[in-house]
Amino acid sequence: YVGEISPRKLRGFANSTSSFFWSLGKAVGQISGQRELLGSKSLWPMLMASCGLPALVQLVTLPFFPESPPYLLMHKGDQEGCKKAIRQLWGEGHHQAEIDDIMKEKATMENIKILSVLELMKEQAFRWQLYMIVILTATVQLCGINAV
Known about the structure:
It is found in: Membrane. The chain is mainly alpha-helical. The chain contains 9 helices and no strands.
């Protein structure tokens, strides 16, 4: 959601910060799970319930956020709703350039053929990228983070 609602010039930054906070959350979970902190038998329920707090905050706050402007414009075709969402997210101002960018992206997406998984595996042009993704995903399982 953050990656979609951010302005185009900040979209890469917003997407990379989410990965950083995922990693930070994993580290905080591992640290707080140590015996000296919340890892004892009597404190395990508190440790397990601690992940429910962010989920509860998200569950309560997300209904008040507007729909994603690209979703409104590209999938629903609601240009007025898109403008309203952009104003609500980014404030008042002239945002026609962002709307034009979304329209260009929509036109580009209409010309791109979506491949099925089988078609992707058969496509010679994507073979090395597919190999790399499979190898990286498989080796992450062997790095020991699951054992920790």
